[in-house]
Design a protein that fits this description.
The protein is mainly β. The protein contains no helices and ten strands. It has strands spanning 3-7, 10-12, 18-25, 34-39, 46-51, 58-60, 68-73, 78-83, 92-98, 111-115. The protein has a six-stranded mixed sheet, with no helix packed on it. Strands 1-3-8-7 form a four-stranded antiparallel sheet, with no helix packed on it.
Length: 117
């Protein structure tokens, strides 16, 4: 059974930083492309970033390019999203998923990111 546990969200002031984590189990993480997706209440999910299995390939939505960096530690089965220079528009619940694109459902509970002064 695929299990994904997101953490690291919280309340941060504009211009601040957060690092999200996603601990994975139930599948071969080191062989899996991983994706970050976010969802604002009342809106559909939005793709944020995809990272290849070896961490070399990384692709970002235009809205986060230059602010967010995805990385992974395959020895720890953990995916990360470093979020810098945060602005209110990026506030949402962030989810990770195994695979490419927006999944049909989220395996984890997500982690809330709030950007406010």
């Amino acid at each position: 059974e695929v299990q994904l546990v997101e953490s690291g969200g919280g309340l941060v002031q504009p211009g601040g930083s957060l690092r999200l984590s996603c601990e994975a189990s139930g599948f071969t993480f080191s062989n899996s492309v991983m994706t970050w997706v976010r969802q604002d209440p009342g809106k559909g999910p939005e793709w944020v970033s995809t990272i290849g299995a070896d961490g070399v390939f990384r692709h970002y939505a235009d809205s986060v390019k230059g602010r967010f960096t995805a990385s992974r530690d395959n020895a720890k089965n953990t995916l990360y999203l470093q979020m810098n220079r945060l602005i209110p528009e990026v506030a949402a619940v962030y989810y990770c998923s195994n695979g490419v694109g927006v999944p049909d459902f989220f395996a984890g509970q997500g982690t809330q990111v709030t950007v406010s002064s």
